[in-house]
Specification:
CATH topology: Heat Shock Protein 90
Radius of gyration: 15 Å
Helix content: 25-40%
Structural class: alpha+beta
Number of domains: 1
């Protein structure tokens, strides 16, 4: 695991108490294993104290989207994930996949019409509700999430 964290305005990399970078196999089972390991570290380091549930859900959703949509579950592809925690307990997470990306503004609302009854399509909505800031880079193939 590397410790390089992509730049983010308002997040001082000199004040980090946790930083990691990992490449995750394009496999739904790997998402769960990796998320569990990250959250164990987050709890041990007292990062995002009291906000762990939301952090975990946002991380799982972002990784699952990257595996299913960005990598199309191709076992030859990988998802990159960066996780950092600053000395104030704020979290910064970046998930990057090798896919073509997408425009998040074109996603249908899961709260309207038939989408209310759909069995999928709520991941990005949940991430936006759970995190303080969310941005997209590389044409939507990278999501950057921040929790203060």
């Amino acid at each position: 695991m590397s410790t390089d964290i992509p730049h983010h305005d308002g997040f001082d990399p000199s004040k980090l108490k946790l930083r990691l970078h990992a490449a995750i196999a394009s496999d739904v089972a790997a998402v769960s294993l990796f998320t569990d390991q990250v959250m164990e570290l987050v709890r041990e380091m007292n990062c995002a104290e009291g906000k762990e549930f939301g952090m975990e859900m946002a991380l799982r959703e972002a990784l699952a989207n990257a595996v299913l949509h960005g990598c199309k579950s191709d076992p030859g592809k990988q998802v990159e994930c960066y996780v950092a925690c600053d000395d104030q307990g704020g979290m910064y997470i970046v998930v990057r996949d090798p896919g073509q990306g997408y425009d998040p503004d074109t996603l249908p609302s899961p709260l309207e019409g038939e989408n209310v009854f759909a069995t999928h399509g709520r991941g990005i909505f949940l991430i936006n509700q759970l995190m303080d800031t969310v941005s997209y880079e590389r044409g939507g193939a990278e999501i950057r999430m921040r929790k203060f």
